[in-house]
Amino acid sequence: MGEELAKRHCKPCEGGTEPLLRDAVESLMTALHNDWVLSDDGMDISREFSFPAYSRTLGFANAVAWIAITEGHHPVLTVSYGSCGVSYTTHAINGLSDNDFICAAKIDRLNPDAE
């Protein structure tokens, strides 16, 4: 299912649709790397990526930025020396959408061995 998600593309979301229901979110979570975490309120998903050097962290952050620009769906990135946190929510609907999971699946393909 993760590969299928990674092959999809985001659809513009300007609001007017409902956020994904909890059952759908939990099902989509199984398609992502186990390190993705669903927030307690079910409003966002996040994952922390670790790297041995700042240059690798920046390279990863730039690759995530490219996905965001290409898909038109932007995460919150928190970049530090050896790590990059990625968090997704769909602000227009105040919750999670398919777009969040599509982008997360694409990010999983960037560094499949990341811990």
Quickly describe the structure.
With 115 residues, this protein is of the alpha+beta class.
Itemize the secondary structure elements and their pairings.
Elements: H1 2-7, H2 22-29, E1 37-38, E2 45-50, H3 54-71, E3 76-80, E4 83-88, H4 98-110
Antiparallel strand pairs: 1-2, 2-4, 3-4
Helix pairs in contact: 3-4
Straight-line N-to-C gap: 21 Å
Give the rounded overall mean pLDDT.
Answer: 92
Rg, Å, rounded? 13 Å
**Unreliable stretches:** none
What's the CATH superfamily, by name?
A: Transcriptional coactivator/pterin dehydratase
Q: What class would the helix/strand composition place it in?
A: alpha+beta
Just give the CATH class: Alpha Beta
The percentage helix is 25-40%
The backbone outline, from C-alpha atoms, is globular
- Biggest beta sheet summary: 4 strands, antiparallel
- What's the architecture in CATH terms? 2-Layer Sandwich
The number of helical segments is 4
- How much of the polypeptide forms β-strand, as a percent range? 15-25%
> How many structural domains in the coordinates?
1
Would you tell me which CATH topology applies?
Gyrase A, domain 2
Element order: H for helix, E for strand: HHEEHEEH
Please report the total strand number as a whole number: 4
Order of neighbouring strands in the sheet with most strands: 1-2-4-3
What does this structure look like?
The chain is of the alpha+beta class and 115 residues long. The chain has a single domain, classed as 2-Layer Sandwich (Gyrase A, domain 2), CATH 3.30.1360. A hairpin with a 2-residue loop joins strand 3 and strand 4. Helix 3 runs antiparallel to helix 4. The longest helix has 18 residues. The mean pLDDT is 92.
